[in-house]
Amino acid sequence: MNDQRAAVPSCHADVVAVDAPPGTPVVALVGNPNVGKSTLFNRLTGSGRDVGNWPGTTVAVGRALWTDEDLGQAVLLDLPGAVSLDPQSPDEELTRDLVSRPDPRDRPDLVVVVASAVHLARGLYLLRQVLEAEVPCLLAVTMGDVASRRGITVDADELAAAAGVPVVVVDPRRGAGARDLVRAVALSLQAGPAGLCGVDGCTCPRGDCSCDHDPLAGPVAAAGTDDEALARAEERFAWVAGATAVSVHRRHDARDTWSDRLDRVTTAPVVGPLVFLAVMWVVFQLTTTVAAPLQEWLDALVSGPVSAAATRLLDAVGLGGTWVQGLVVDGLIAGVGMLLTFVPLMAVMFALLSLLEDSGYLARAAVVTDRSMRAIGLPGRAFLPLVVGFGCNVPAISGTRVLPDARQRLLTVLLVPFTSCTARLTVYVLVATTFFGDRAGTVVFAMYVVSILFVIVVGRLLRSTLLRRMPDDPLVLDLPPYQLPMLRLVAAGSWRRLRGFLRTASGIIVVTVIVVWALSATPAPGSSGTFGQVPVQDSVYAATAGAVAPVFDPAGFGSWESTSALMVGFVAKEAIISSWAQTFATAEPQAADTPGSLGDALQISFTESSGGYPIPAVLAFLVFLLAYTPCVATLAAQRREVGLRWTLTGVGIQLVIAWTVAVVVFQVGRLIA
Amino acid sequence: MTLDQAPVGAVATIGPIDAAPAMLRRLAELGVRTGEAVTPLHATAGGGRLLAVGDTRVALARDVLRRIEVVAP
User: Fold this and answer.
1) Does the CB of B1 have a partner CB in chain A at under 8 Å?
2) Which of A457, A347, A422 has its CA nearest to residue A626?
3) Has residue A151 been placed in a domain?
4) What is the pTM of this model?
5) Chain B partners within 8 Å of A92 (Cβ)
6) Which CATH number is A7's domain given?
């Protein structure tokens, strides 16, 4: 039993997250990946979904209070997709643990096994395992439309008779059959712990009905050795074969579907990677250039008219020029403004994620990139968040949800901050133009190469230390059939994810901005200003930077000005240039490649702090800037995905690596110079 | 002959599979098990193959294909 599993409590103990009254029945959706399980969950529960990591794990589970006139109230759980209850990842392990807890009172009151009509046999294998766990269950068959196009039909009555459970055919994308499912769930819950017989629509409790059918014989003891486990699996396959033989009918042998024809292009040895790069280019463009004007507009709106209106209002009530104005305008409004600028970016990212997932392309991308990503011990799917990270780390962290394995998700979340986002680019350009003149372009390019090296080296380092137990199995992947994405579902899914991000990240971002404002508004001991009326160089903020600065002496940039910029950079890298301008009391440059008087001030500062070796010191500074914590919004996104402990661990890793490499760069550079 | 060498487009019957129990079980759950018929559809980027397994499509890496014997291609 590993840590993840040990931390898993019962279903009933952890449904409190959805504010359910005591005694509310718990219904769990269980199914293979890509069978429409989460779409069904959203269809049934509307907008009341709470997606979060299961306590003590990094495994994401959807939870919602499900209210319906036919059903009353139930807590609905969307458990991670599982091929079977013989787990091979923490996600599958959580599903297995919640379904088959030793104490029946800890298990869900009902399990709805969601199975695709396209590959019913796999869903039935899972159903059989759920039945063996003695949990009341019913079967929801999805993707009938795709199956029908392939000439496959599923006879629900025959299937119910053969499997011995109620069977409902449902289309989660369009809603057909959802009412039947609600009624079947309500009936099953009324039937109590035994569940329904379900055979031929029989609504008697299982094992206590008068029908002549012979449902599945009693529970099967857990298999011990590997041979016994394989023998047990064979027994299940025989059961599944029996059930599908009578219930699945084929009109013709659908060998060459349009999905196959598309696959011949999208997964092909040469063309496949080209298609993938084209898709990634579009994703990158949309998450950066398309979202950028909206971000700038929101930023201008908040820092312009909104701040001005707030200032006028405070003037009108006699608070203009006081610390209250600083708190409201530079703290609260600036913090909310920063949060708002992320909204277009995240909305675009979430919409693209939904499109790629719903269409089925993501699985093909995983095949195409699998081999190259194995270099850092990650599967092909990790490519997507890492590419997006070069635009912005925040949506990239959320994009790690495309990874099915919690440990792979964790590793990717820890690696994304090492991808050099565009916010860092403006600082590179300013510093490189100041110190390297015509060679600035080469230096900026080198930063991107260093960024990729960081991802590879840190990835391998983490694989051999903190994440040793991560699986490294070769690619074995089921490819779901392509589907045309439904815009309504994409929009609803994006909105749900965006709302979740705002709920989790807003507090951290706004509070951090206010704390930085408060520190820079508080006069340092011995200075003459008052709260809210003090130059930044006389503030507690500057004093703190001064106290931290000696840490960077071995890296050649141990001045309070550089340290203060890095501290601001912790909140947002975009703020570094304006912070420098404020610190050096120079005009903020109009563009990063025309540093003006700020450039002169930086030359003097770095020359002084490095003892006459400004170039190695600047290179060390750039490397530190690249590798340390990207921004508070990234931390907020990380906390949402992997929890506080791993987020803080990540910050520690970034700081240690950034400092160590910066020191090496400066010391080696100084020797060479 | 192993599955990485089986002719593309022709039905092949799976023979013995030389893999760890966990991998054997996962392959079996996806329909790739001894006695079953599969059809290699085409080569994929990275050196693997896409297989038609009943009505489903399964992508396997070359390392996995090499461990799967084919009885009657």
Assistant:
1) no
2) A422
3) yes
4) 0.72
5) none
6) 3.40.50.300
